[in-house]
Amino acid sequence: MTTDKANEERERELLAYLRGEMTEEEAASFRARIAADELYAERLEELLLGSGGQEEREADVLSEETQRAILRRSKWRHRLGNAAYTVGISLLVGAVLMFANGWIGWYLHEDAYRVARDMVHFTQPGLTVGSSGSQIGFLYGEINMELREQVGGDDQNAGTFSISNVFSIISAKPAWTDGLRKERLFFLFPSSAADREESAFRRNPAWNTLEKLPEGTVAQLAVSFDRLLTHDEYYALLSGYDLDTTWFAVDTGQERNHPDAAEGSLLLSAGDVWGYAERELDYGEAPIQAHGEGERRARAYLAEMEYLAGQERLTNAIGERLVTAGNRLRIEERCRYLQQNGVRLYGAVVTGPVKELLKLRQEPSITAAFVGRIDWWNWDRPSASGQRTSP
Fold this sequence. Notes:
Domain Sigma factor regulator C-terminal: 210-372
Strand order of the largest sheet: 9-7-10-6-11
Strand content: 15-25%
Protein name: Anti-sigma factor
Number of helices: 11
InterPro entries: Sigma_reg_C_dom (IPR025672), Sigma_reg_N (IPR029101)
Oligomer: single chain
Keywords: Membrane, Transmembrane, Transmembrane helix
Radius of gyration: 37 Å
Transmembrane segments: 83-108
Low-confidence stretches: 51-61, 94-106, 383-391
């Protein structure tokens, strides 16, 4: 009933308008209502076009020019409304596509790739990221990285590391060549003098193992020092050896908070130790010397740690699969410590001929040594990656 009355009222007002029975003020007000009410506009168009029955003849009281003007306004109103709807839908779909394939793709490839690469280089002694591939779909992306480690002069496969995202949810997963990450490289965090005197049992097994190997072999060796060293002090210490340094163990301030630190001797390995693969940092346009330039190396490492601190959400999502279960990354705390205390080293991964590694036995500052992977002689030929040239 209410609807019928409303229709009758609308019809009465339309006819009054068409007959010219409204005052100028009433007609102006009614035209505004027509522009805002689609039902009024459609019914007016029917009356003017001749589909309104007997009442259509009443439209003769309006001039032809007035009728055309009303029709033009009505038609353009509908056209503009449809166009606005179409444009709005197009913009919305475009925005979604840009978000999915643009922002998320950029987010994954620019930041997630860099964070994942850093976390491998900073928490996995001896490992580096090799070749990588990626796929991007609607609201989905994936990156797969090859993991490599240098043994002698060659880079060898150690597994893969994959990162994927659905919308903004990031997940990461390492897959090791042998099914699990074999812990061979350990570092002894420097503590008391008494601990240094008792460190022979952490060195002698490594020397005994290396002595039993044929001369024509190469190996990895993780060595630890009795004190914190600057880069320049480290290079001065190993300047007389024909060895490659592939990774540094860095004091980031959190080592002293490790649950095992209270026992006096703290051995750290992948998942607990922090450092960096020295050849994988961005040192800028000018190439860095093979040895030395300690301040430049420290600045590059600190800059990358600051980047990780600024990407805390990504770093936590990706890094949790590379650290020991239950271990908090504490990137901001580590970064602040490095800013205040500088970058200081307490261990390194070195690789080269077994006979050259054995010479390190004469260094009294080495408190621990652990043998990693071993391979046949490859020291005097370039590696497949092209990273090494003949000495």
